[in-house]
Amino acid sequence: MEETNGSPSKMMKKDEEINGNDKHIIMVTGGTGLVGKGIQMALEKEKKINPNSHLNEEWVFLSSKDGDLRNAQETKKIFERVKPTHVIHLAARVGGLFANMKYKVEFFRENVMINDNVMECCKDFKVKKLVSCLSTCIYPDKVEYPLTEEKIHLGAPHTSNEGYAYAKRLVEVLSRLYSEEYGCNFTSVIPTNIYGCHDNFSIDGGHVIPGLIHKCYLAKQNNTNFTIWGSGKPLRQFIYNVDLAELMIWTLRSYNSSEPLILSVAEEDEISIGEVAHMIAESMEFKGEVIFDTTKSDGQFRKPASNKKLTGLHPEFKFTSLKEGLATTVKWFEENYSKARTQSHD
Ligand code: NAP
Ligand code: GFB
To answer: What is the DSSP letter of 118?
Structure first.
C-alpha cells in the first residue's frame, strides 16, 4: 500500500473541463491490485500526454490496510475520512480457477459483504457516481454466444466459480435497485480476464497468465519442464490492465447509464490457453519442454464476450496486443520478482 504523508496515496489535479470548477474526489477501492495499479499507470500516462487535463480530479487509492471493507463500520470510517464524490469499486476477493473451486463459500460471502458495505455507503454519502466491476465469468455457462450485456441472468454460471459469480451478479442487481429507489448514479463494467504488471503471481491462487509466467520463470531457473494445467484447449479473451484502466476512467467520466457495459477486446481475439502458454515461453526465451497436466481442471471451456456496445460508444479506442502486453508483464515480473505477489493468501 502506497502511503504518502500517512493518508492513502493521492494524485492531485485541477481542471475546468468537467462541471466547471467542481472538485472531484475519486476514491478507488482495491486501488493496490492489478486493476487499481493499472488506473494509477493510466493516469500517469495521461498526465505525460496532457498535463493540464482533468486538473479538478483528486484520486485516492485504497488498500485493505485503509480498512476491511467486509466490515460495515470500517467502511463507513473510510467514507467519513475520504468524503469521495465519485467511486470506482474494485476491491474484492479475487482468484483464479483453482482458488475459486476451492473456496466458493468465502468468495461468495466476502464479496457480498464488501459490495453491500461499499454500495450502501455510496448511497448514504451521496456519491455522484459509482462504477463497480463485474466479470464475464458471472455469465450463464449455457447461453447463446457471444455474451452481451443483457444475458447476465439467463441461467446458472459455470460451477467452478458459482460463489464469486452469484456475489458479483448481485452488484448488477443492486446498482439497478439503488438507481430506481434512490436515484443513485450507479453503473457497472464487465471485464474479461485481465493481466498485466502488479498482478497476483501466486501459482495456486492467481489467474492463468501470471501463474504461467511464474511457472516458466521457475522452470528456467531450475531447468525443469514448463507445466500447463489442463488440456490447454479452453479459450479466453485477455485485456491488458492499463487498457482496462483507461476504459474504466472513460466510463467514470463519460458513460452515463446504469446498464452494465462489457469492457473487452474483440471476439476475434479469443485465444487458447495452449497458444498463450507458448507465447509466454517464447517471450521468456524458455528452451525446455512444455507439458500439459490433464489431471488438472480446464474449468469453463469458453466465455466469448462481444464488445460491440463499447466500440459503438468509444470507436477510437486502441487495445494493446497480447504479444506486447505479455512482453511488458514478463519484463516487469523478472525485474520485480522479489517484490511481486507470489504467495497464495488463502
Ligand atoms: P487484486 O489484484 O486481487 O486486488 C484486489 C484489491 O482489493 C487489492 O487492492 C486489495 O487490497 C483489495 N481488497 C481485497 N479484499 C479487501 C477487503 N476485505 N477490504 C479492503 N480491500 C480489499 O484484484 P484485481 O485483479 O485488481 O481485481 C479488481 C476487480 O476486477 C475485482 O472486482 C475483480 O473481481 C475484477 N475482475 C478481475 C479480473 C482478473 O482477471 N483479475 C477479471 C474480471 C474482473 P490489498 O492490496 O491490501 O490486499
Ligand atoms: O485464469 P484462470 O485461473 O480462470 O484459468 P478462468 C484459465 C484457464 O487456464 C483454465 C488454465 O482453463 C485453466 O485450466 N490453466 C492452465 C491455468 N495452466 C494454469 C495455471 O497455471 N494457473 C491457472 N490459474 N490456470 C476465472 C474465474 O476463471 O476467471 C474467476 O474462476 C475470475 O472467478 C477470472 O472471474 C477472471 O478464466 O477459468
So the answer is: H
Q: Is 166 a catalytic residue?
A: no
* pTM score above 0.90: yes
Can you tell me whether residue 292 is helix, strand or coil? Answer: strand
Q: How far is the CA of 96 from the centre of ligand 2 (A)?
A: 5
Q: Partners of 59 in the beta sheet?
A: 11, 26
* From 164, 178, 217, 240, the catalytic residue: 164
Q: Which long-range contacts (CB under 8 A, 24 or more apart) does 320-324 make?
A: 320/240, 320/242, 320/243, 322/238, 322/240, 322/269, 322/271, 322/276, 322/279, 323/279, 323/283
Among 65, 71, 87, 94, the mutation site with the greatest number of ligand 1 atoms within 8 A of its Cβ is: 94
**pLDDT tens digits in sequence order for the chain, 346 residues long:** 444 444 444 444 444 444 456 899 999 999 999 999 999 999 999 999 999 889 999 999 999 999 999 999 999 999 999 999 999 999 999 999 999 999 999 999 999 999 999 999 999 999 999 999 999 999 999 999 999 999 999 999 999 999 999 999 999 999 999 999 999 999 999 999 999 999 999 999 999 999 999 999 999 999 999 999 999 999 999 999 999 999 999 999 999 999 999 999 999 999 999 999 999 999 999 999 999 999 999 999 999 999 999 999 999 999 999 999 999 999 999 999 999 999 876 5
